[in-house]
Amino acid sequence: MATDGVFSAISPRPGSRRTDLRKAVSDSNRDNQRFPAVIVDCNSFEGRTFSEKVMKHLRLPQTEMWFMTYIETVEDVFDAFNRDATYVLAPYHFIESDAELRDICDVSDSFIPVIFVHRGKAVLPGGRKADVLSVLEKLVSIGFYRNCILDTEGSLDGYTWSVIREDYPSTVPIVDSPGHAEGFETYAVPYML
Predict the structure, then answer these.
(1) Cys bridge to 187: 10, 75, 149, 181, which one at CB 3.0-4.6 A?
(2) Which residues pair with 18 in a beta bridge?
(3) What domains, with CATH codes, occur in the chain?
């Protein structure tokens, strides 16, 4: 089932309304356009642990699937991939350490860190905040050339977005409105019921 979940400053939460996931994906892919489906496993975030259960039954034929889940270690990344997930996404601030990030980068080119933005700043482990551009620079220096920025508050200013577009063109914004992602080749907008 798909839900009208919401993103808080640090984690996704499920909503109260539900619909069939396959129907939601089908509705999103009208007019013979095929968009990737970004599936967010809210249960893993609530439990603060990766659970394989959702991946065992998750199949979306003819749809590219990106899967966001709770990841702390490189072992979690191994568990998170199934034959249908093209990418696994995970919030940067939940990764156990920079050493784990390096290990993840070494073993998978299909893992994408997600920088959560709260009040214009990147959320770091432990709830600290930092400049979004400095966090992007750090992730790129580790080897992550594709990253996501989740700014569903719309709190990043236009200048920061312009620098990201120019200096980090493979960044994938996750925003409330396509207008906030203008100029990016790929972006994600949460599904609203």
Answers:
(1) 181
(2) 3
(3) 2-181 (3.20.20.70)
Q: Which two tokens stand for residue 24?
A: 């939601």
Angle between helices 132-142 and 158-167 (to 10 degrees): 20
Q: Write out the DSSP string of 137-166.
A: HHHHHHT--S-EEEETT--S-HHHHHHHHH
* pTM (2 d.p.): 0.87
**How many residues comprise the chain?**
193
Distance of alpha carbon 102 from alpha carbon 106, whole angstroms: 6
Place of tokens 């299909």: 110
Query: Which residues face 151 on adjacent strands?
Result: 175
DSSP state letter for 23: H
Q: Which two tokens stand for residue 52?
A: 């394989």
The helix or strand, by DSSP H or E, that contains position 57, with its residue range, turns out to be: helix 53-57
pLDDT digits (tens, 9 = 90+) for 125-151: 888 999 999 999 999 999 999 999 999
